Amino acid sequence: MKTRGTALNPQNRFQPIVTDRQTDDGWYRDPEDELCPDSLATEVVDEKVRTIISRNRSPDVPFDRSINPYRGCEHACIYCFARPTHAYWDMSPGLDFETRLIAKPNAADQLRRELDKPGYEPAPIALGVNTDAYQPIERVRGITRQVLQVLLEYQHPVSIITKGGLILRDLDLLSELAAQGLCSVRVSLTTLDNGLKRIMEPRTAAPATRLKVLRELSAAGIPTGIIMGPVIPFVNDHELERILDAAAGAGATRASWIMLRLPLELDELFQDWLQRHVPQRAEHVMNRIRDLRGGKSYQGTFGQRMTGSGPYADLIRQRFNRQARATGLNQQPEPALRTDLFRRPAGEQMGLF
Q1: What is the three-state SS of 293-344?
Q2: Where are the alpha helices (DSSP H) in the chain?
Q3: For the segment 107-131, what is each residue's pLDDT rounded down to a tens digit?
Q4: Cβ of 218: how many Cβ atoms within 10 Å?
Q5: Is the pLDDT of residue 10 over 90?
Q6: What confidence category does residue 192 fall into, taking pLDDT thresholds of 50, 70 and 90?
Q7: What CATH number has the domain spanning 43-329?
Q8: Are 207 and 191 in contact (CB under 8 A)?
Q9: Please, what is the average pLDDT of the chain?
Q10: 280 — phi, psi (to 5°)?
């Protein structure tokens, strides 16, 4: 499927009736026919949300709250751990996740209401964790920018993770937040190979663009770093040292890594991708993944789900730590984002009476 991460659209696990989507209905479309290309358009529907701040208690992530302006993600990363969440909306974690998106146009208004609640205690909000806040439809919808404007108005701390070059559009807001110690950015950098990027995460920014994002954010005084996530055995693990070198050269000061995770439907989708793109390595990749996960494709045990366990996980950790030291990454403690500046503009006005 051109410009899409997967060609599959498996039944989601909550649907009681399974339909056969592989039956030939007579409407054959030749993939080589330029007048009828083998592709799907993106559909977007709006959802008026009642809450916008999601909470979590996971010991594996450094935040307890997040905001996702969109459900589903047009970036189409085949490895995305969030794919199975699309089943909650009666859609498939496959092509539906990439092509049938849900936007939250009232996100900024709802955020104001939640920040105005008397019992709200400020702590850094992670923006765009489940799905990328700077995926292509953000260029038109602008929901992420509206959210940032509210956070700046309330002087509320925010951390951002993205693969999208569109983040540079909001350099004005991000630099103002960072000047007050209220913002940090992590760029997800998984490969420097354009060919691999095109098949593994087809609608994300090119590697060179992500390095440009790091340079421009760093030059604007915004604390930046990278996440090499995921590390995929025998697919991109050989690039680890080069990725850290490139990130440090572009101004990043922090780096971390995450091992590939294959929860629920993602297992089938990723194995199909391996057979389509690297069939000669597919079995080798899956055997190593099972070694990392106690003989299974995935284990969700806290403390291990982000890294796996065993000799291979230890090797990646050693390589990463050695190269981080060599490039000067992670050498200083990262300052915590400030929470003491938080204010409620409407509440301050009410205090006059």
Answers
A1: CCCCCCCCCCCCCCCCCCHHHHHHHHHHHHHHHHHCCCCCCCCCCCCCCCCC
A2: 95-99, 107-115, 138-141, 143-153, 171-179, 194-200, 207-219, 240-249, 266-277, 282-292, 311-327, 345-350
A3: 999 999 999 999 999 999 999 999 9
A4: 17
A5: no
A6: very high
A7: 3.80.30.30
A8: yes
A9: 91
A10: -70, -20
